[in-house]
Amino acid sequence: PGGARMSLQGDTKTTMEHVSVALEELLVAARRQGYPASVPTGDLDPDCVVLCVLACDAEQEGDVALQIHFTLLRAFCCDVDINILRVSGMKRLADVLGESGEARDLHCLLVTNPHAEHLKLDEVGSYCEESRCNNQWVPLLALRDR
């Protein structure tokens, strides 16, 4: 009942791969419905946001402006109780979202479908919740080319 929960206590690599696939499926489903939205969107209703994805690769970790943006978004999301995931693998993220080249800024994405009853949202949300219980406030996933 209520769907399967992945435990961080088990095989961490398998869990990470499973959650990465779940996130990709969630983003594909959201894209079909016109989401996710790139941040910032001035008229965004925080009650409609179901997930925040902060994405950057190792070479972008030193970008001070991007890190400040991430810090502000994390504070906002924590304040209004929105799950947050950090991901690496910008090329894979662009592929999943059907974006080519530098067409759109994919560093900060909000899945903003209040009716997202997608099972993958439950899996990703459970992973975020369990990570917080283990003092990993913003879990990191590596998206890998397939």
Automatic annotation (TrEMBL):
InterPro entries: GADD45, Ribosomal_eL30-like_sf, Ribosomal_eL8/eL30/eS12/Gad45. Coiled coil: none annotated. GO terms for cellular component: cytoplasm; nucleus. GO terms for biological process: regulation of cell cycle. It holds the Pfam family Ribosomal_L7Ae. Residues 49-100 form the Ribosomal protein eL8/eL30/eS12/Gadd45 domain. Belongs to the GADD45 family. This is Ribosomal protein eL8/eL30/eS12/Gadd45 domain-containing protein. It comes from Denticeps clupeoides.
